[in-house]
Amino acid sequence: MNFRFLTQLQATFLLLICASTTFAQHKVYHPSPFPDRIILGYKGDPAISQAVNWRTDTTIKEAVAAIHEADPSPDFQNKATIVKALTQPVVFDEHAALYHEVNFTNLKPATQYVYRVGDGKNWSEWFHFTTASDQPQPVSFLYFGDAQNDVRSLWSRAVRGAFVTLPKANFMIHAGDLINRSNNDYEWGEWFEAGGWINGMVPNLAVPGNHEYYKDGLKEKVSKHWRPQFALPENGPEDLQETTYSIDYQGTRFIFLNSEEATSGKRSRDEQAEWFEKVVSNNPQRWTVVVHHHPIYSTKQGRDNDDWRDKMEPLYRKHKVDIVLQGHDHTYGRGINMPVGQSRKKPDGPIYVVSVSGPKMYDIGLQDWMDRAASNTQLYQAITIDKNKLSFKAYTINGDLYDAFDLEKDNRGTNTLTELSNTLQMKERLNLPERYEKSFKEAELKEYNQRYLDYKKRKGIN
Description:
The chain is an alpha+beta fold and 462 residues long. Helix content is 24%, strand content 29%.
C-alpha cells in the first residue's frame, strides 16, 4: 500500500473541506410557492385587528389568508374566512420575491384566533394569536437589543430562550440592528429562521438601527427589506412610515422612534421631536414606553449621541416617560440620569436601558448613570406592566435572572423605584471580551480597571 499517496489524498481532502467551509459561509434562503418568513405585526388597534406578513416566490398569482376563532376541534377549517392579501413584488440582488400582507379587522377583543396564509393551494400551518383587551389589562412583552451578527447560530439562543421564559408575551420589541448588512437577504433569512414559528404567534414591533440603513448615492435609505417584510403602524411622520410610530396596548402607550434618521440630520430630529410631543401631549394611557436604537446615555464614554439627547431628554422628563429601551452599544446598562450620591428611589426622569442580545460585544464604560451593568453577555428582557406597577427583568440567554427592578406609580403619576438587583445571586459580569483584553494597551487596561474600582465604590461593593 502506498502510504505516501494516501497522505497526499488526505491532504487534498482536507484542503477541499477548508475551501468549502471558506466559501459556504451561509445558507441560501430562496423563496418558494410555500409561505415563509411569516410574522405578525400591527396596522391598527390591537384589540380589534391583527396584521400578518409573509413571503413567496413570484409564481403566486393571488395570496390569501384564512382566519377563524380558535377551536379545539379541527372542523373549523372549512368555515374559516378568506381574506385577500396586498402583494408587493421586490427585487433583490439575490432574487425576486413577493411579500404579502393581510390586516385582519373587525375582530373581537381578548379573543384567540387561528389563521394560516397561502394561495389556496400552498398553505402554511395554522397559527394562533390573541387580540388585546379593549380595557386596561396587564401587558407583558420581550425586549431585545442588537441581534446583528451570527444571527442563526448564536442569536437564536436569545429569541428562543426568551419565548421559553415568557411564552405568554403579548409581543416582542427589537431596538434596532436586527442584522448586520441592511440588504443581505441571507441575513434576514437567518433572522427569520432564528425566530421561526414564534414570529407567527407573537407579534413583532421593531425600529431600525444604523445597520438597517445603506447608502444610495449620497442619501441613506432604510433596508429594501424593511417595509415589505414587516407589518407595522403607519401613524408616524409621512417620510418615516413604519420606522416611527406609536401603538396603545391595554393601558400603555408605546412610542417607537427612528434614531438613525434623527442622529443623521437636524431636520429629522426636529420632525420626530415635534411628532413625539403631539403623541404624548394627548396620552390617556397610564404608562409610556419609548423605544429607539441610539442611546440617550451610552454605556461607554465617547459614544454619546449629544444632539439626540439634548433634543429628546427634556421631552422625556416633561412628559413623564417611564422607561426608554435602546441598543447600539453592545453592552448592558440600566439606570437613571441623576447626580451621583442622590437617592434614586424617586426618579426625576425615565429609566434608561441599553442591551445586547446578539454575540457582537464592545468594551463597557461603567458610566455614572448606570445602576446595573454587564459586559460580554447576551441578554433578553421580560417586562410586565400591571395597573400601578412595571416589573423589569433581564435574563442571560442561559435563563439566569441578571437584573430586576420595579416601578410603582402613584395617583399623581410619580414613580417609586424598588431596586431588586441587589437581591440577586448573580454577580455583575464586568470582564472585558477576550479581544479587548488581548488588544488593549497597558494604559487602556489600567484606565478600565480604575473605572471598575470607581463603579464598585459608588455602588458600595467590596
